[in-house]
Amino acid sequence: MTKRIIVVGDKFSEFSNGKDVVTISQLDLITQIPAHIIDTDSHFIVGQGVRDDYAGKVLDNQRRNKNHENKLDLTELQQLTTSAKNAHSHKKMYHNTLIGMAERVEEDSFALPLLIDERCELMADHQTGQHIQGMILVEACRQTFIAITEEFYMAGQAGKSYYVINDMNIKFDNFLFPLPALVNYELLEKDINERRSRFKATIRISQHTTLCATMSVAFTVYPSSVISEKEGLLATDMTHSILQSQITHTLVSDGSTHV
Questions:
Q1: How far is residue 82's CA from residue 61's CA, in Å, rounded to a whole number?
Q2: Are residues 67 and 167 in the same domain?
Q3: 154 and 27, same domain (yes or no)
């Protein structure tokens, strides 16, 4: 009988205690143990936080020690190192992308795997408790609406657009743990023209049969050239206003202003 074990990132070591869960560093050690000591066939399921470079090291161990092949099933770990993360997330560093490739379920409905690397920017400081921090889910939702819009609704403008969030509300229903999870995107409204494109959508993140978070979002997409010019003017105006207020405050403070 095969034993199923979850593998998670090292920062989720607290979550791994007392469960059929190991960290990727622990799996690294397991793949170096002589085969005759491992008496149970084990199938490893990839959870959240696993670094692809650590996964590669574990797979290298397995390849070097052929005696493990009948004991440790690392198929899912192999898939992690070969499957691509979403290329439309607007993140430059690969490990900061939190979502996988999207699958179209219905005309305006999509599903994506949640794929968290513990090196991501939102886990760089610390990890508290056993669950995944809420701000990571907020960022995953943000990446999702950008990625879906660029790939399926504005493919011709991919990489040439500027996203402005008009309204964003998120409800956290349950803790989400470092286990496999799914992101579902549903487009509710769209209004697309040459000058700008407006969208409203609902994004749900679930784990097994449990809904963990729901985001309602409204956003507008502009051509980069249009918003860059407007943003530049607003930035200049605000800088001027702040500096002017400082000059006025200085004059009042030193008594140079006369009534």
A1: 17
A2: no
A3: no
Residue 209: CA count within 13 A, CB half-sphere: 0
CATH of the domain at 118: 3.10.129.10
The pairing of strands 72-73 and 42-46 is parallel
**Structure tokens, 163:** 């996203």
How many other β-carbons are positioned within 10 Å of the β-carbon of residue 132? 28
CA–CA separation, 252 vs 197, rounded Å?
A: 47
Cα separation, 229 vs 128, whole angstroms: 41
CB 154 within 8 A of CB 207: no
Q: Report yes or no: 102 and 84 within 8 Å, Cβ to Cβ.
A: no
**Beta bridge partner(s), residue 228:** none
End-to-end Cα, the chain, rounded Å: 90
71 and 109 share a domain? no
pLDDT tens across the length of the chain (259 residues):
889 999 999 999 999 999 999 999 999 999 888 766 777 889 999 999 999 999 999 999 888 876 666 688 999 999 988 878 999 988 989 999 999 999 999 999 999 999 999 999 999 887 888 999 999 999 999 999 999 999 999 877 766 788 999 999 999 999 999 999 999 999 999 999 888 999 999 999 999 999 999 999 999 999 887 777 888 889 999 999 999 888 776 666 666 554 4
Domain with 55, as residue range(s), is 3-82
- Pair 67, 111 in one domain: no
What is the reported pTM?
Answer: 0.87
